[in-house]
Design brief:
single chain, 385 residues, alpha/beta, Carbamate kinase, Archaeosine Trna-guanine Transglycosylase, Chain: A, domain 4, 2 domains, eight-stranded mixed β-sheet, five-stranded mixed β-sheet, 40% helix, globular
Length: 385
């Protein structure tokens, strides 16, 4: 398996990267923070102690925390019955206040002030708001405050899908140029097979690159509240962080001293190495923060031009247009098998691309009555996956 790094070499690499890390994002999910009756206060106390350890070691820390819905359930006496979406949102509104009060009380013991930041994906998809959030985070760091981030579940239906806080954590990591993204969950790492059914399954200590083989390992979990989608979102989050030059970690959030053990270089959990070539901030935003408004299916020649030669996308290489989108909207470029190979911002809307796809650039003005650009997506606005 070419994605793995030999254990001794991997431990040395993680020690080196963690020793250099000065800004850390820690994400903790509901599977760790909650029990069947509400918040797990023992875990929360340990988390506050661990994050204080990171702060006292001279690092800046952000916490991305789930748990609002579970906290609201407890406070409202909703037990474990299935909630409708509007009930989840109402429970989150009640529970978020209790969750933050709990964090305030715990961190006060360590003389650490905290701040609540609630975000939606829409906040991050607008470049000006994206930059404003980054400025706010920088100010909080200057004031010595630990930001606690959660999705604004009360107003955003899509954000309640399981695992979305993994994506949010990765986006925040890249937003503030953090060095490490730590994902604490109820499994002790990524495995080569399902350890419940495969006696030869082994934990992967270090992942050099998140490729298709690694993504397909998402189902290799045992005795966890996570489904395949939950682990997959964590792997893809690590991929997002690696593209921006950061490293990631997936490990057991209920294990006492887990962060101290990690930063001491112990072989805990699974560590994901950064990509050698760091993707520029704006291009990373295009590829991993913006959601595609449509899709362009390309022929083999166009795929090679984009992936191997770094070329712009011309109309002649487009075979099919999917979705409705405007000029400047984000799209994903697909190969013949439907796999996304690149993301970009279009120079023409979907209606016009329908008219010019498969045609030469010299024909654009004749077909449309105008020509704003030779390229459907210019290489400056194009990012390959």
């Amino acid at each position: 398996m070419t994605f793995q790094v030999a254990q001794d070499k991997g431990i040395a690499l993680r020690r080196s990267l963690l020793n250099q890390a000065r800004r850390v994002v820690v994400k903790v999910g509901s599977a760790v923070l909650t029990t069947g009756t509400g918040l797990n206060h023992h875990v929360l106390e340990n988390l506050a102690r661990e994050l204080t350890f990171l702060r006292d070691s001279g690092r800046e820390v952000i916490l991305v925390s789930s748990g609002a819905v579970a906290s609201g359930r407890k406070k409202l006496g909703l037990d474990n019955r299935v909630l409708r979406m509007r009930e989840k949102q109402a429970a989150a509104a009640v529970g978020q206040a209790s969750l933050m009060r709990c964090y305030e009380d715990l961190f006060e013991h360590y003389e650490q002030k905290v701040a609540q930041v609630l975000l939606t994906h829409d906040d991050l998809s607008h470049r000006d708001r994206y930059l404003n959030i980054r400025n706010t985070m920088s100010t909080l760091f200057e004031w010595g405050i630990l930001p606690i981030i959660n999705e604004n579940d009360t107003v955003s239906v899509k954000e309640l899908r399981f695992g979305d806080n993994d994506t949010l954590g990765a986006m925040v990591t890249n937003l503030i140029d953090a060095d490490v993204f730590i994902c604490l969950t109820d499994v002790d790492g990524l495995y080569t097979g399902n350890p419940c059914t495969n006696p030869e399954a082994r934990r992967v200590h270090t992942v050099a690159e998140v490729n298709e083989e690694v993504e397909n390992m998402a189902g290799n979990i045992c005795g966890s509240a996570l489904g395949t989608g939950g682990m997959r979102s964590k792997i893809l989050a690590a991929k997002m962080v690696a593209a921006r030059g950061g490293c990631s970690f997936i490990g057991p959030g209920r294990e006492p001293g887990i962060l101290q053990n990690l930063f001491a270089g112990e072989p805990v959990g699974t560590f994901f190495l950064p990509k050698p070539r760091r993707l520029a901030s704006r291009k990373h935003w295009i590829a991993y923060t913006l959601r595609p408004k449509g899709f362009l299916v390309l022929d083999d020649g166009a795929c090679r031009a984009l992936l191997e030669n770094g070329k712009s996308l011309l109309p002649s290489g487009i075979r099919e247009v999917k979705g409705k989108f405007k000029v400047g909207d984000p799209v994903h470029c697909l190969n013949a098998s439907g796999r996304a190979i690149a993301a970009g911002l279009v120079n023409y809307n979907s209606v016009d691309i329908e008219k010019i796809h498969g045609r030469h650039t010299t024909e654009i003005e004749e077909i449309l009555g105008f020509k704003d650009s030779d390229e459907v997506v210019h290489r400056d606005n194009l990012v390959k996956f």
